[in-house]
Each structure stands twice: as C-alpha cells, then as structure tokens.
Amino acid sequence: MSVIFESRYPTHPDDVKRYDTEQLRQHFLVDNLMQPDQLVLCYTHYERVIVGSAVPVTGPVQLETVAALKADYFLQRRELGIINVGGSGVVEVDGQRYPLQNKEALYVGMGARQVSFYSDNAATPAKFYLNSAPAHHSYPTKHLTMDNCTVLQMGAQATSNERAIHQLMINDVVETCQLQMGLTVLKPGSVWNTMPAHQHDRRMEAYFYFDLAPEQGVCHFMGQPQQTRHIWVANEQAVVSPAWSIHSGCGTSNYAFIWGMAGENLDYHDMDKFPASAMR
Questions:
Q1: In the chain, N or C terminus with fewer CB closer than 10 Å?
Q2: Is residue 247 annotated as involved in ligand binding?
Q3: Does the annotation place 269 within a ligand binding site?
Q4: Which residues pair with 224 in a beta bridge?
Q5: Based on C-alpha coordinates, what's the Rg of the chain?
Q6: CB under 8 Å to 184, separation ≥6 — which residues?
C-alpha cells in the first residue's frame, strides 16, 4: 500500500473567468480516486477539506498521516466521513470493527488513532469515499445507513430531477464539528441534480459522482451565477466547489452522487438559490 497525496490552493473567481478546459480540470476535478490498494488524498485549501478514497483489494488499507499535515496521526486534529460505494467491507477504528454495506456511512471523530479499511471479497472490493475536515472537539464514531438517516424526496419526473436525498451526516442525525455528508440518488429518467443551482458563501462543497455507466457522463456546472463554467465528469470522479461557485449537474443518464460540505455553520438549508433564468 502507498499514499497518493496532492495539495491544491484556492482560486479567485476573477482568475477562473480566464481558465480554459484543462485549467478548470486541473484545479477543480479530482480524477484519480478509487485506485486498488491505495490511499488517495487530495488536500484542498477550501476549508482545508481533504477528498480521498481507499480501496482494499489484496489487503487492508491504512489511513496514514502525511508530512503536510504536521500531525502524529491523521485524525489528531480532524474528523472523517466515510461512505462505501462498492462491495461490502469493514472499517476498523481503534480496534472496533464497523461493517459497511454499499451506500452505508461511518462518521469518525477527532482523536481516533488507527483507521483501517477492509473488503469482504477481493473480487468485489469495498470502495470507501472519504471527506475530512479540521475539528475542534471529539464526537463519537457513528455508523449510518440508508434506513437511519433523513431522506428528502425532491424534484419531479416532469422536470427530469426526481431524486432522493439521503442526509447521512447532518446535525439532526449525527454530531460533527463542521463536516456534513449525504448521498443523492436520481430516479431512472432523471438527470438534473441540485436544480435550482445554489451556492453558500459560508462553506465549500465537493461532489463525487458514481453509479454511472462507463459510456455515460455528467456535465457539472460551476462558477459564479453570471459567469458559469462546466466540467465533464466520469464515474467515480469528484469536483471541488469553492464557496463562491454554484454547483449543479446534468447527466446523460441517471446516477448517484455524494455531497460533502464544511465551513462556518451546520445549517443544511443555508444556501442562495439561482434558477436557470438567473444564470448566464
């Protein structure tokens, strides 16, 4: 096992107006996730959130610290959210084992020293998607399923955005310092997510797209409402969204995605919405 680590610095919206396709992808797309037997970590300077993955195949993958964190262990000053998008597996936290089925989640509080990831079957390995944010308090580790979270039924077939939003890690489900995560599943025939588009100046967000067939894609929209840009995203890729950017997307088929947020407050509904008529 090895660790693949990169660090990305913030961008100013005035600069992004001049970015071409490759520059947009370089700064905002995370396209190296879900590599077998690898811990992949992308440290963003947006609220210092880390986007990552762990896919144990031939053996367990350890959540190791990296020199850039200046920490004795990964969660010394951080909290962690984990969602499994692959086969069944186990997350072991300081000797306690938590089985995670597909689309189940685990919140791990600050101070946990050893976190290891396992797959039940190497032929269909677990695929653990990770978000981590700085923390100021240690909250208990909690296992979250699609049955014990808040579910919002949103959209309609007529507007091609019928979807179920599973709020796995928000403040009325689990206590966290600032990290929030959830999973949205679009119904067959629906392709739009998060419409109307929105932004929240008080926190950043990352979108991880999955359950997307190899020949399909999602056009992820970003930028300021009057200066929108787009990035084409494939299966198991993520987009980092600054606080000044909208986030919305439209796929060539239905799909699922994980949203992760961190920032100033834990109010899920703290957002500024922009209907299609208001964007350029």
A1: C
A2: yes
A3: no
A4: 227
A5: 18
A6: 163, 164, 165, 166, 193, 256, 257, 258, 259
How many other C-beta atoms are found inside a 10 Å radius of the C-beta of residue 34? 20
SS3 content of the chain, % helix, strand, coil (to 5): 10, 45, 45
Number of domains in the chain: 1
Q: How many other CB atoms are there within 10 angstroms of residue 276's CB atom?
A: 10
The SS3 assignment for 19 reads coil
Other beta carbons within 10 Å of 138: 13
Render pLDDT for 109-134 as a digit per residue (tens, 0 to 9): 999 999 999 999 999 999 999 999 99
Q: Is 200 annotated as a binding residue?
A: yes
Give the C-alpha separation, 278 to 276, whole Å: 5
What's the CA angle centered on 194, arms 188 and 195, to 5 degrees? 95
Q: Return the structure tokens found at 267.
A: 């109010």
199: containing domain: 2-278
CA distance 51 to 234: 16
Alpha-carbon gap, residue 47 to 120, rounded angstroms? 34
Asked whether the predicted pLDDT for residue 265 surpasses 90, the reply is: no
Preceding omega of 10 cis (within 30 degrees of 0): no
pTM: 0.97
CATH number for the domain spanning 225: value is 2.60.120.10
- Rounded Cα distance, 28 and 34, in Å: 17
